[in-house]
Amino acid sequence: MTATDTLKQAPANADVDESKPNETQGLMARLGRWLDRDRWPVPAETQTLFSARITDVAANRLAKQWSVRYGAADGKERRALLAALAQASAGLEPRGDQGLRLFRRLYAQADSLHLLVELRADMLRWRNQVAGLTVLERELEGLLSSWFDVGMLELRPITWDSPASLLEKLIQYEAVHEIRSWEELRHRVADHRRCYAFFHPRMNDVPLIFVEVAFATQMADNVQVLLDPKVPASDLNKARWAIFYSISNTQPGLRGISFGNFLLKRVVDELLRELPKLKSFATLSPMPGFVDWLAKQDGKAMQELLHDKADKQQALDDASAGLKWVERLQAAASGTASESAQRTGLRLAGLYLKSMKNGQPVDVVARFHLGNGARIERVNWAADRSAKGIAQSCGIMANYLYDLEQLDDNLAQLAAGKPKTGLNLRWL
What we know:
The chain is an alpha+beta fold. The chain has 3 domains: 3-147, Butyryl-CoA Dehydrogenase, subunit A, domain 3; 151-283, Aminopeptidase, CATH 3.40.630.150; 290-425, Aminopeptidase, CATH 3.40.630.150. Helix content is 50%, strand content 11%. The protein is built from 20 helices and 9 strands. Strand 4 (241-249), helix 12 and strand 5 form a beta-alpha-beta unit. Helix 3 (43-51) crosses helix 5 (75-90), helix 4 (57-72) packs across helix 6 and helix 7 (114-126) packs antiparallel against helix 8 (133-147). The longest helix is centred in the first third of the chain and has 17 residues, at 21-37. The radius of gyration is 26 Å and the shape is globular.
């Protein structure tokens, strides 16, 4: 029996145990005093949310009131409410499944999963400041992982004909390349583009993750061209490449619950069904950690990374050698770059993408795509000259290639600590 099945069998108006009417009346009276006097519930009252049977009417009403109050609260009050939960949670002995019971109770009283997702986002935000919150956060993560199983998610296309409220959410949640106008949004969801998102039936109005797709005759190397609404529309009949140029998770409360890899695989299937002439699938991806990584490299580290002898000599014993290269590459990307600067910048970017820590790629985007079985196919100079692109990666972007026949082999190579690269990077 799943957690959802349990909830279906335990509606909020289930019969209460009539053998303890005074206890129930007393709880309701305390609840009334809490709300009327605007005070936090004492731990004994809050513990009822954990310990009472899932069918207990009084405890469920308390959960409903708590949910309404939490939903309307500002950050300060939410933190206080979470602190009260954590304090009550710490007193549970034996704990058993009482923490899970709290969240199932809150879920049963809610119209959707919004509250639980917001609750975990706040727990992640404050878990290092509120004692005992980490235990609750981990329990909630486990439940959300089951409630957001990929088998429960629905893949839907988003077009210019989608409801305005949904299109506004694309603007709100776009995390890679800002959408600055309705004209830009219309370009992203035009007939010659595709946008797909995963939805959950209990959060039907919110895309959990979405991907934006462009089509081309060859692998794209410049995101400005893809984003510019004034660039003529591509001919889908001539398209052989599908380019995933933006993937955005929308819910911080679902961090660590991965369904992005399933999204891309489902989208590939949809695209091949609709456009069977497509031959290749690749991304044009940012490298959000490149500048931070390079700036931390001292002269000794740069000796290993640089290829030119003069550059190696200049970096010798220079504690800020990496930072100086950041400044040099950012200036070059913003203006006219020499061939030497471009070559060195691309080499450093490729070595960064291959860097591993604790068995995982250092770059968060590389971690995602390589973890899906893609390979690092190419790095592109001045591919994103936006302020964000220059600040994060000196304007350099990467192509990850999804070769459907090689995904498993690439994953095996990644597990061995050697991320797969394409022929374009054989010089690294």
